[in-house]
Specification:
This protein has two domains: 2-117, Rossmann fold, CATH 3.40.50.2300; 125-233, Winged helix-like DNA-binding domain superfamily/Winged helix DNA-binding domain (Arc Repressor Mutant, subunit A). Mean pLDDT is 86; it is low at 231-235. The two termini are 13 Å apart. It has a five-stranded parallel β-sheet with strand order 2-1-3-4-5, with helices on both faces. It is 37% helix and 21% strand. Strand 4, helix 4 and strand 5 (97-100) form a beta-alpha-beta unit. The relative contact order is 0.09. The protein is α/β, with parallel strands linked by helices. It contains eight helices and twelve strands.
Length: 235
């Protein structure tokens, strides 16, 4: 997923870009409206984050030009103008969401994910190696053998399998599955991963759930131990 951040305040732009990059997104930045519009015309973005107070033109004018294209990505406005009238005006001009400054990155990330999910059909069946997850019927099999999972176990496994080959941090897993902030202290993810491994991996020689040192966990086919992949395998 590729995101364009249109923000003239360098400190904010770098803060947002670093956070989104750590969450696994490709991020480009533009410091003014003219540069942003050139980038929009030159590349296909999955989402645009737009500040309204730009040095060369009003952010709403940028939004109108983006919306004038035959196809345009979702736009999330980030603005210090937080009054109700400002939010309504932004949405009426075509924004998909509006977040007032100052904001927490956790909330921003949640809104980014929600916008990226819109209109994107998710596969009904996920498969990694011989592990198969039926998202509709909420059934899991490995090698044709049914595996019973608790609801949270299923949700964690589904999230890992939708991101097969990508290392996911404990923070991302907690925020996605429990929809809460990660406080840096809880070992709840490690506990559930142990439960999943007991059901999904322990009886099979080929392991699918892997630990990535200093990062978190990854689902991928292959591997005998399921432990300690090199940190550089993380995205």
């Amino acid at each position: 997923m590729r995101i364009l951040v249109i923000e003239d305040e360098k400190r904010i732009a770098e803060f947002v870009a670093r956070g989104l990059d750590s969450a696994g997104y490709a991020v480009d930045s533009a410091g003014d409206g003219a540069a942003a519009l050139e980038m929009v015309h030159a590349a296909d973005y999955d989402l645009i984050l737009l500040d309204l107070m730009l040095p060369d033109m009003d952010g709403l004018s940028v939004l109108e030009k983006i919306r004038a294209q035959p196809t345009s990505p979702p736009v999330l406005i980030l603005s210090a103008l937080g009054a109700v009238d400002d939010r309504v005006k932004g949405l009426e001009h075509g924004a998909d969401d509006y977040l007032s400054k100052p904001f927490s990155f956790t909330e921003l990330l949640a809104r980014v994910r929600a916008l990226l999910r819109r209109g994107q059909p998710l596969p009904e069946r996920l498969q990694v190696g011989d592990l198969v997850l039926d998202c509709i019927r909420r059934k899991v099999t490995r090698g044709g053998e049914a595996i019973e999972l608790a609801p949270k176990e299923f949700s964690i496994l589904e999230y890992l399998m939708r991101n097969s080959g990508r290392a996911l941090s404990r923070m991302l897993i907690v925020e996605h599955v429990w929809e809460m902030d990660y406080d840096g202290l809880t070992n709840i993810v490690d506990v559930y991963i142990r439960h999943l491994r007991a059901k999904v991996d322990d009886r099979w020689p080929e392991k699918i759930i892997h630990t990535v040192r200093r990062v978190g966990y990854m689902v991928k086919a292959g591997g005998e131990s399921g432990e300690d992949l090199a940190e550089e395998t993380a995205e």
